[in-house]
């Protein structure tokens, strides 16, 4: 037997993979609960309408900060301890959000929710470390499927709870759920001790250097920054648009958001495509689907068709989630000893785009309505597709690392 085969980890059990998927979905959902509730939270806390989408932006900024400053610790600190401590922090942050009496307090809590929720990007590379190379794409895809369900179900669940017992209950119930998850993970997760002995400052600096030394990271971060930026733009803007133009209640928004959960099936499918060597064509199709979704949404707004708007949401979710799995599969193959830092650098760009998309959503709706949202939403994936095409042309004329 070869050394590579001898040193490969045994495949994780189905139960452990399911636990990681559930944990990833539950934690990442915290980033999205505020998205469909902007129209409720902002007036309740007297936040001006023009900057109401900051309720979403601050959570994403906190997450991006955690990706840059906390996730790299996954290459230094025992992973189970690090993950569970961050989840404990999320419990406190969610409790503050539930009790917030002014919008500055809510924004501070949102920042901390995002910061602590970055633990999900310690959990994903952790399961990748526990998985043999030949099945890593499938296992990561399955865990990402759980994460995607968390993203997509967070919106309808938050809307239904807010419709029934108020928006504060959303955050209170999530705090309770995170407390239970903390206890389960502390008991069930395996210990993963990283081999790196670098100092923290050097570790953070090395993460930024990865953008200079790893062209695959640069490309994948750019593709997903554009895709997730417009994902966040769409899902921050559409609840406001449905409320104002279609007079939807939170229950109606919940049903609409639930339709988007169909996009979750793309994550495990994309993992299998990556394992089979179809990463490039999968990326092109994913980005094209994101671009097409905004054309569909523009037609839906023009025809006053909720069905077309919902179809656009499904196409958008499918394309964004598939592109993310393909991107993570590519960067995890680069250097196992740098996996946490590579993931942190990739996801920081990812959520930096998301923060920008949510930040401009309210202003675009106020100044140009849905046509302006659709125009901006189409521009970013169009630019990403152009960058992808340019890289493909360069690859065919001289040797390039696989994307």
Which key phrases capture this entry?
80% helix, mainly alpha, 403 residues, Growth Hormone, Chain: A, disordered N terminus
What is the gist of this entry?
This protein is mainly alpha-helical. It contains 16 helices and no strands.
Topology:
Layout: H1 3-7, H2 14-29, H3 38-44, H4 54-69, H5 79-99, H6 103-117, H7 120-129, H8 133-165, H9 167-188, H10 200-213, H11 215-245, H12 250-260, H13 266-275, H14 279-303, H15 306-332, H16 339-397
Helix pairs in contact: 2-7, 2-8, 2-9, 4-6, 4-16, 5-6, 5-7, 5-9, 7-8, 7-16, 8-9, 8-12, 8-13, 8-15, 10-16, 11-15, 11-16, 12-15, 13-15, 14-15, 14-16
Largest sheet: none
The appropriate CATH architecture is Up-down Bundle
Question: How many independent structural domains?
Answer: 1
Low-confidence stretches: 1-6
What does this structure look like?
By secondary structure, this protein is mainly alpha-helical. The protein is built from 16 helices and no strands. It has helices at residues 3-7, 14-29, 38-44, 54-69, 79-99, 103-117, 120-129, 133-165, 167-188, 200-213, 215-245, 250-260, 266-275, 279-303, 306-332, 339-397. The protein is globular and about 55 Å long. 58% of the residues are buried. Residues 1-6 have low confidence and may be disordered.
